[in-house]
Amino acid sequence: MRGLITDVLESGGIEVVAEAADGAEALTVVAETEPDVVTMDVEMPGMDGIEAVERLMREHPTPTLMLSAYTEDGAEETFAALDAGAVDFFAKPGGEVSMGVSRMETQLVETVRSVAGADISGAGGTGTGAGTDAGTNAGGGAATAAAAGRGAGTATAARTAGEVEPNTTVVVGSSTGGPDAVERVLAGLPGDADLRVLVVQHMPEAFTGRFAERLDAACDLDVCEAADGARVGRGEVLVARGGRHLEVSRYRNGRLRVSLVDEDRGQNVRPSVNVAMESAARTVDDPLVAVVLTGMGDDGAEGVEAVERAGGRVIAQDEETSVVYGMPKRAAATGRVDSVLPLEDVAGGIVGGAP
């Protein structure tokens, strides 16, 4: 598997400067070679990926991409690695792993390059910046590149629940670095605020249910994974299910109804922030807020334009606190963003406008 990962990365123009058979050896080779990015399997003999990431972030902070099993158990372990400081993860598909890696090699290369440029200061170290070298630590796999990481700052609600406009709908989109950033934003929202929230995080299906559970435990709002036909009202949050687009299909009396769509809709990711925001802009006739957080790519740029045209407000995370300043940058470039805020101010911006 290490040979296969090396071949895939080098065929994509990335120089692999070292390999390691387990976590302990990985720490040694990272210290010796100082790579720009590390790929790390979650499950390894001896020191596993979670412990290895914890030590790596303490001793030699380096942007790290986890290679994880495409299962609910794999999701639990992967989130633990993200908590330890890993930037992102790449989920292995079912079946023959080597075939899966080869089939998804372009996506794996793009994800490794994105992680190499991540700002990991929130994980206790300083990002090395984008580069062309990579240290490969263990066997991996492939599937949809989902996102996670460590944001900077702590989200706090700068306004009170009473100042929220009645029947406000919020659509939050994120990718690389998003799970931590979304958690911090939701934790800063008052539980009794008149908000109904949709979260679109680029993440495969096996992971979004566990992600919703984590968010529910971290904030005062009621959070669950979206189901087709689900409704969301005051104080409730739906997390888009991986592998499906989330659309607002109906809005009445402060309650949203959503549909899960198994079509590409012209997007290269599923779920897509664009699809959710555009559907909300078409359907919701009460106050609407679009939020674009850290992530690679341009998903959300079309969505914020639709929200602004519909009279809604648009907030983008700033570059300094973004793990990857891709999606917020592209959103800001549309000229439709009302506020560019550090992560710790986003919740306050949602509740009562920009501080």
TrEMBL record:
Positions of modified residues (4-aspartylphosphate): D41
Gene Ontology molecular functions: methyltransferase activity; phosphorelay response regulator activity; protein-glutamate methylesterase activity; protein-glutamine glutaminase activity
Predominant localisation class: cytoplasm
Location within or outside the cell: Cytoplasm
Record Gene3D superfamilies: 3.40.50.2300, Methylesterase CheB, C-terminal domain
EC number, UniProt record: 3.1.1.61, 3.5.1.44
Modifications after synthesis and translation: Phosphorylated by CheA. Phosphorylation of the N-terminal regulatory domain activates the methylesterase activity.
ATP-binding found in the keyword field: no
InterPro entries (alphabetical): CheB-like, CheB_C, CheY-like_superfamily, Sig_transdc_resp-reg_Me-estase, Sig_transdc_resp-reg_receiver
Keywords associated with the record: Chemotaxis, Cytoplasm, Hydrolase, Methyltransferase, Phosphoprotein, Transferase
Every Response regulatory domain range: 1-107
Domain CheB-type methylesterase residues, every copy: 166-355
CDD domains on file: CheB_Rec, REC_CheB-like
Active-site positions on this chain: S175, H202, D299
GO biological processes: chemotaxis; methylation
Catalytic function, reaction form: L-glutaminyl-[protein] + H2O = L-glutamyl-[protein] + NH4(+); [protein]-L-glutamate 5-O-methyl ester + H2O = L-glutamyl-[protein] + methanol + H(+)
Signal peptide, first to last residue: none
Family statement: Belongs to the CheB family.
HAMAP family in UniProt: CheB_chemtxs (MF_00099)
Matching PANTHER family: PROTEIN-GLUTAMATE METHYLESTERASE/PROTEIN-GLUTAMINE GLUTAMINASE, PROTEIN-GLUTAMATE METHYLESTERASE_PROTEIN-GLUTAMINE GLUTAMINASE
Record protein name field: Protein-glutamate methylesterase/protein-glutamine glutaminase
Native source organism of the sequence: Halorarum salinum
Organism phylogeny: Archaea, Methanobacteriati, Methanobacteriota, Stenosarchaea group, Halobacteria
Gene designation per UniProt: cheB
